[in-house]
């Protein structure tokens, strides 16, 4: 029986190239929130949810939603390419599934914008607390949480998969996972302090988490032992067939 991930040998290089390029562009798209420092968004980077940039009532909602949508689609495409031509093994599969889940959840997230910016609009915050906002606003929280969780799963899978080879590649992967994990814990703690509303410092923690996700996507592209075959696929050790 043909195993999962079998493609013609002469097509593997092209599939890997597409996968790496997709992950790299996804990292760039997922980092476009940095434009907030050059745009008049009216939101505080130290307080606001990053998702508020694409809230339905915000001036640059279309730009930031499109960036998230592109990041999600490209991450999912990279995951498919990884399953087809990436390194084999249980934890490698976990890493690819985490990437796929992140991509799908991020894509969904881009179609489920917040109604308004809760950190900058007291009426919006009160309506959210009272449950008076739309179902789309509520589902946005679900898709955002799922995207963050799947990114953490993907980063963990990659780090564990690279652990046997040791060396810098494992240390980098472990560090990226650690940044995501610590930032997510801080985000959850600050949300608990604010009873679900962002408090000062929340925006910093969430942006650090997003930087960690973008760094993970770059690691998917660059770290040896992630993709099967070629120079960047050596050293990870093929899994038993």
UniProtKB/TrEMBL annotation:
Sorted UniProt keywords: Membrane, Transmembrane, Transmembrane helix
Q: Which residues cross the membrane?
A: 21-40, 60-84, 91-108, 141-163, 170-196, 208-227
Q: InterPro entries, alphabetically?
A: DUF998 (IPR009339)
Protein name per the record: DUF998 domain-containing protein
